[in-house]
From TrEMBL:
SMART domains: HTH_GNTR (SM00345), UTRA (SM00866). Residues 251-275 are annotated as: Disordered. GO terms for biological process: negative regulation of DNA-templated transcription. It holds the Pfam family GntR. It comes from Nocardiopsis dassonvillei (strain ATCC 23218 / DSM 43111 / CIP 107115 / JCM 7437 / KCTC 9190 / NBRC 14626 / NCTC 10488 / NRRL B-5397 / IMRU 509). It comes from the Bacteria. This is Transcriptional regulator, GntR family.
Length: 295
């Protein structure tokens, strides 16, 4: 085991530093769900601290639900609860969870008029007069997704942030704006979390996220929204319903995972977060190919 003494110049308590290091390894699956953590003696040697500090760190992780402990046995990395979403359905996360009896909470972070939407949003909506809506989705206080939605400003001029608190945007569109989300196209990308989104979702910067993005049309075929929704890959699973031979979902790692990054020296360890993101995209692609063949 590599010895990694704590930083005694760090203002954080020693147990918090140890809990942070172990939490990152569990999140990146260096310690996989169900795996046993090193013993207290091994952790004492690794971090150069007393038994009481190690026990306090493990107690912190147990309180968070990151590990399970049984008297007389080493701690075990907890298997996280996974929530499933059908990615090719027009209905949003809120409505899908509601149908399963789960109450998803929504915090509106901002709603503002802008003329500087991302190119994909302005192309899809056909205007630069936009509303930019940012929301956080959580379940039982556990952050699941960060959602950024672009809307045509003229059509949704009466939209108010208070309307969207713990509510479904699609349901609101239908009930107050006579706009029924009917069809659209979706893409999935495996991406590293930027610092702001990482902070909101409670993950490390560059942690692997699943980005679902796409545009939606109403019952008349008019463009209704463009959205980007970042999901915690350790909490949300994307399900795919495959029918016939038609491509339903486009799956690819985001270029930011491989572009503009220096080549690692031969034999050097790769970042576990990036490995997981790329592996996740490959597994999704393989599963879609399998379903298409069986169909």
């Amino acid at each position: 085991m590599i010895r990694m003494p704590v930083d005694r110049t760090d203002p954080r308590p020693l147990h918090a530093q140890i809990a942070g290091a172990l939490r990152a390894e569990i999140r990146d699956r260096s310690i996989a769900p169900g795996d046993t953590l090193p013993s207290e003696a091994a952790l004492r040697e690794r971090f150069g601290v007393s038994r009481s500090v190690v026990r306090q760190a493990l107690a912190t992780l147990e309180d968070e639900g990151a590990v399970r402990r049984t008297r007389g046995r080493a701690a075990v990395a907890a298997v996280p609860t996974e929530h499933h979403r059908f990615v090719q359905r027009v209905t949003g996360l809120f409505d899908q969870f509601s149908a399963d009896g789960l109450r998803l909470s929504t915090a509106v972070l901002s709603l503002e008029a802008t003329r500087s939407g991302v190119p994909s949003a302005t192309r899809h909506l056909g205007t630069r007069e936009l509303l930019r809506l940012e929301r956080m989705r959580s379940l039982d206080g556990d952050p699941l997704s960060y959602v950024r939605t672009w809307l045509p400003a003229e059509r949704f001029a009466a939209l108010d942030a208070a309307m969207l608190r713990d509510a479904s945007l699609h349901r609101l569109m239908e009930e107050r704006f006579a706009a029924v989300p009917t069809s659209g196209r979706r893409q999935i990308r495996a991406v590293p979390a930027d610092p702001r989104i990482a902070r909101e979702l409670g993950v490390a910067a560059d942690a692997p996220l699943l980005l679902l993005e796409g545009g939606t049309f109403d019952q008349q075929g008019a463009p209704l929204e463009w959205f980007e929704s970042w999901h915690r890959s350790d909490r949300v699973v994307f399900d795919i319903e495959a029918e016939g031979a038609a491509d339903q979902v486009r799956i690819a790692p985001d270029p930011s995972l491989t572009a503009s990054r220096p080549e690692a020296p031969a034999g050097a360890a790769r970042e576990p977060g990036l490995d997981r993101a790329v592996r996740l995209a490959e597994e999704l692609r393989a599963e879609l190919d399998r379903l298409r063949r069986e169909g």
